[in-house]
Amino acid sequence: MKQLIIGLFVLLTFSLQAQSTDTYIELLRSNIQLEKKNVIAESLDLSDKLSEKFWPIYNEYQGELIKITDKRIELIKDYAKNYQTLSDKKANNYIERAFDNREELLKLDKKYYEKVNDAIGSRYAGKFIQLISRINALVDIQISAELPLFPVPADSVDVK
Known about the structure:
This protein has helices at residues 2-12, 21-44, 48-82, 88-120, 122-146. By secondary structure, the chain is mainly alpha-helical. It has one domain. Residues 9-18 have low confidence and may be disordered.
């Protein structure tokens, strides 16, 4: 887990000036995926027999997770682009999309908890979800630290 934290810190503090945002995101994503897989492999310490059952499920999970994170990335990019001119309507849209994204992620985690549980048992499935949750929390903390909060008007007494 320490390696993941160090890897995240190094990549998240990497200068954007030298690369496009999309290139940076792909570099960050590939590093997170690799580090996450290493942490999970080390933490679960599966036998060969259990590994044969688990890793195809994990790879399937990653494929679905990418689709959800792509939506989140697009949301963040859109927010960054429109931050300075944020209206109440647009702010509401961002929050609704963020809620939808969280719900999709929770559904995915539940779905793959069941798949891992069926394949190798509840303790391994539970540990897998705990690891995923902790890694996601680390990423969320870094994103939260970088994204500014919604701006509110100076005369916010009577906004509505």
